[in-house]
Amino acid sequence: MIITTTDVIQGAVIESYLGIVTAEVVYGSNFLRDFLAGIRDIVGGRTGSYERLFEQGQRKALEELEQRAQRLGANAVIGIEIDTGTINVDQSGVLMLITATGTAVRIR
Asked: Which PANTHER family match (predicted)?
């Protein structure tokens, strides 16, 4: 399956648009990771644990997006956009949200 952020695929003809597909991945906060990230904020530097978490989440969201598009009969997803955000649950932590959205299409 071809997945792309562009709205066309060079050399391919879109036979049908099958609909918008969306996939979400949500991760809970982790006390140790949050503590270490807080230290990084104070002393400076990148927070590798969060970078890896978001990278993993983006991969999982794209995998889920592909599966949902296949269920619609698509062989490509175009116009993909990935968004990340956080949801404050309460004083105990934050949820990290990664969303992938695109248009499922059938190409030839």
From this structure: UPF0145 PROTEIN YBJQ
DSSP symbol at 7? S
More confident residue, 94 or 97: 97
Q: From the CB of residue 29, how many other CB atoms can be counted at a distance below 10 Å?
A: 14
Which residues are CB-neighbours of 38 under 8 A, at least 6 positions away? none
End-to-end C-alpha distance for the chain, whole angstroms: 12
Residue 4 tokens read as 């792309």
Buried b (16+ CB within 10 A) or exposed e, 82-100: beeeeeeeeeeeeebbbbb
**Using an 8 Å Cβ cutoff, are 95 and 26 in contact?**
yes
Give the Å distances, CA to CA, from 5 to 82, 96, 100, 102, 104. Answer: 9, 22, 11, 8, 12
Query: What angle separates helix 48-71 from helix 31-43, to the nearest 10 degrees?
Result: 130
